[in-house]
Design goal:
The complex is a heterodimer of chains A (149) and B (181).
Chain A lengths: L1 H20 L9 H12 L17 H15 L4 H12 L14 H35 L10
Chain B lengths: L5 H22 L18 E3 L7 E3 H4 L4 E6 L4 H13 L6 E7 L3 H11 L5 E5 L3 H5 L7 E5 L5 E6 L4 H17 L3
Parallel strand pairs in B: 3-4, 4-5
Antiparallel strand pairs in B: 1-2, 3-6, 6-7
The chains are: A mainly alpha (149), B alpha/beta (181).
């Protein structure tokens, strides 16, 4: 049992150090800057990986882009400016949070439309069943057993 | 309408949606990023050449005539597949063929060129990869068609094939030349 626990702890430590190895050390001025960098790179999508943010990716291109994001932060650029810089090169693909514009309204409001359509189907169904239930109840002879659902 | 058919109709709609997804992904690569740089000016850059790092070539030196910028690297497996096609078709394209050696080791790149031949008029070396990011490069090989005004007219991701050259590149190059550019 102790051995198993030790093994689990060891593998966890090994795994977590592996994931940290993917992220290159950058000379942050302070902790706040580091947090800002991490928050920003988590919102950016790695352009060569599957389902990985720029913050998590071990791809060489992601490392280059992290370096560029870092350099732009050092140059005093705002998060929005850095995002504009990236989308000018790699399109909206890099943003996990796509901007709302004419080309993306279906992406934003599509789920709402599906929800409304589903709601309409449910409403129609409920109304129709209530009607047939009323008709059935009025034509059926009274019974002692309450099974009117 | 017969309501008993509703679940079936719903099923058919879902099946049609999934079928469309399968059909769509057969002809579209979901990970291919559409370049926002098409019909925009190519980034300005100055890069050393592979042969002589002291000699620098920039976008201003290339301006005035159309050129084909081909991103490659010695570590890139697909570039080996593409290379013989550039060797055989490169001269027939009729415009300057600029090699863009991306994130490479100079010794490896030189050996690669010596081994497979040099189809390029000039080879630029972007080892830090900064200019590649300005071009929105995601991988190698990638090919950009830039016109005489320095505007990116076309981008092709993955190895060029004789078919792509004939059906995509040549008509665009012919149109540029016809337009007096």
């Amino acid at each position: 049992m102790l051995l198993v626990v030790m093994f689990l702890v060891a593998s966890f430590v090994a795994f977590s150090s592996l994931t940290f190895a993917a992220v290159d050390p950058l000379p942050f001025k302070n902790h706040a800057e580091e947090l800002r960098f991490q928050a920003l790179t988590k919102q950016l999508r790695c352009v060569v990986c599957q389902n990985e943010s720029l913050a998590d990716s071990g791809a060489p291109l992601a490392a280059d882009l992290r370096r560029d994001v870092f350099e732009q932060m050092q140059a005093g650029k705002s998060d929005a400016e850095i995002k504009t810089w990236l989308t000018a090169r790699y399109s909206d693909y890099v943003l996990y949070d796509p901007p709302l514009r004419t080309g993306t309204w279906l992406l934003w409001f599509g789920p709402l439309l599906v929800l409304l359509a589903g709601g309409a189907v449910v409403a129609v169904n409920v109304r129709r069943r209530a009607k047939t239930a009323r008709v059935a109840a009025s034509t059926r002879p009274d019974s002692d057993i309450e099974d009117d659902w | 309408m017969n309501t008993r058919l509703l679940p079936f109709v719903g099923f058919m709609l879902v099946a049609a949606l999934l079928g469309f997804g399968i059909w769509w992904s057969m002809y579209h690569d979901m990970h291919e990023i559409p370049s926002p740089l098409i019909d925009k000016p190519a980034p300005t850059f100055v890069l050393p050449t592979l042969d002589d790092p002291v000699r620098k070539i920039g976008s201003r030196d290339l301006a005035g005539e159309p050129y084909l910028l081909n991103v490659f690297a010695s570590w890139c497996v697909a570039c080996r597949e593409e290379h013989p096609i550039l060797m055989s078709e490169g001269k027939r394209i009729g415009i300057k063929l600029v090699g863009f050696d991306w994130e490479d080791d100079p010794a490896d790149a030189k050996r690669w060129i010596a081994q497979f031949g040099n189809p390029y008029d000039v080879i630029l070396a972007d080892f830090p990869g900064n200019v590649a990011i300005d071009f929105g490069v995601t991988g190698a090989p990638e090919t950009f068609l830039v016109d005489a005004e320095g505007v990116i007219r076309y981008k092709y991701i993955s190895p060029l094939t004789p078919e792509v050259i004939a059906t995509q590149l040549m008509p665009r190059i012919a149109a540029m030349k016809k337009g007096g550019k």
